[in-house]
């Protein structure tokens, strides 16, 4: 079990590592608001990773059918969430929270944004399942709660990754000029908006031009 828990930890790290909307959010929060804000955003991502790890072990077949049956709703809703979060990031004022020797407080909004962004991409369930298969953890019996330590290890790996990344980024925070941080906020927000628009566009194409149902 100890070896499996170590593998689970590595799954959590690997699931968090790819550059995507959540990683962009953590970068922006860490540089603009400091370590605590970036880490809390990472915690939101870890909650979603833990949820997806549980689904990948216990209910992959159900999750796959749900995604197949509702993929247009997922595209439209997920795209809308990313657009809203991206706009919020692009037009936020990082100067308001930055102080010379004091790190800004943590906002529940940081956590909520990361959770919303993570839930907007349920395809990550399959990434999690692929990682389980790669590390030899995919053969665990369904509904066997003995895999709970593995799921907790996945969560710990994800939390550890985001803690380290947000801490490292916050160390460089004071070396950036305010104008640089402002542009980082604008650009990262714009990237997330573009991703959201792409998802919305795909969903609309499926519904309007290909005649697929929304639900």
Q: Would you summarize the structure shown here?
A:
With 215 residues, the chain is an all-alpha fold.
Description:
This protein has 215 residues and is mostly helical. The protein has one domain. It is built from ten helices and no strands. It has helices spanning 2-16, 21-33, 35-58, 60-69, 71-90, 94-97, 108-119, 124-134, 148-171, 178-209. Helix 2 (21-33) packs antiparallel against helix 3. The protein is flat and about 50 Å long. It starts with a helix and ends in a 6-residue tail after the last helix. The model has no long low-confidence stretch (mean pLDDT 83).
The number of domains? 1
Please indicate the percent range of residues in DSSP E strands (runs of 2 or more): under 5%
Number of helices: 10
- In helices, the fraction of residues equals over 70%
Largest sheet: none
Helix/strand order, N-terminal first: HHHHHHHHHH
Tally the beta strands: 0
- Rg estimate, integer Å: 18 Å
Class by alpha and beta content: mainly alpha
Label the overall shape. flat
What are the low-pLDDT stretches, counting only 5+ consecutive residues below 50? none
Distance between the termini: 42 Å
What is the average of the pLDDT values?
83
What are the main properties of this structure?
215 residues, 10 helices
SSE inventory with pairings:
Blueprint (H helix, E strand, L loop, with lengths): L1 H15 L4 H13 L1 H24 L1 H10 L1 H20 L3 H4 L10 H12 L4 H11 L13 H24 L6 H32 L6
Helix pairs in contact: 1-8, 1-9, 2-3, 2-7, 2-9, 2-10, 3-7, 3-8, 3-9, 5-7, 5-10
